[in-house]
From TrEMBL:
TM region positions: 87-110
The name this protein goes by in its record: ATP-dependent Clp protease proteolytic subunit
Keyword Transmembrane helix in record: yes
InterPro entries per record: ClpP, ClpP/crotonase-like_dom_sf, ClpP/TepA, ClpP_His_AS, ClpP_Ser_AS
The family this protein is said to belong to: Belongs to the peptidase S14 family.
Active site: S99, H124
Species in which this protein is naturally found: Erodium gruinum
Amino acid sequence: MPFGVPKVVFEASEEEEATWVDLYNRVYRERALFLGREINTELANNLISLMVFLTIDRPGWEPIMLINSPGGFVFSGLAIYDTMRSVGVSTICLGLAASMASVALLGGNFTKRAAFPHARVMIHQPRMKSFEDTLGRVVKEALVLLDLRESVTDIYAHRTGQSWWVLTVDLESDTYMTPKEAKAYGIIDQIIAEK
C-alpha cells in the first residue's frame, strides 16, 4: 500500500477557514526545505525556486535545508549551492549527505551547518557515468570534468579551511565521515544533541 504525502491542517489567519495541505507545502511555509533524494535538474529547479520565493516572501527569515541525499548531477548541485550562498540557508544532515549533497551541506551559513549524531557525510571528486563517445568528445568532456573538479575543490577549500593538497587526496576516493569527523574537517559546525 503506497504511503503518499500526508495532509495536515493549515490555518493562514483567524478569518480564514482551516484547509488541508500536503505536509511538504505546510513545512515549506515554515521555511524548512528538503533535499531528500538524488539531485537532478527538476529537484534543483524546485529547491531554487522555493529558496528565492521564501526569501522574497519573508525577508530576513532564514530557511533551513534538511539533507538526506546520495548526491547527484554536478551542475544541478552547483546551482543549488550558489543559490544557497546568495539567499542564506542553515543546513542539517539527517542521514547521508554524499557527493553533491555534501556540497549543499557546506553551502549553509557558517556556524549554522549541523548534523544529527548518526548522520554520515561522504565526499569525493566529480565523476562521469561513462565514456561512450568518440575520442574528441571524450577529451572535451574530460576537460569539463577537470574544470568541475577544480570548482568543487575550491568550494571545499573555501568552506572547510582544508588545504588543496589534503582535499586532493581525500576527494580521490569516497571518504565517509561521522559527524565528529565532519566537524573536525570543517564541513559542519555543530552536532545536534539528543534531548
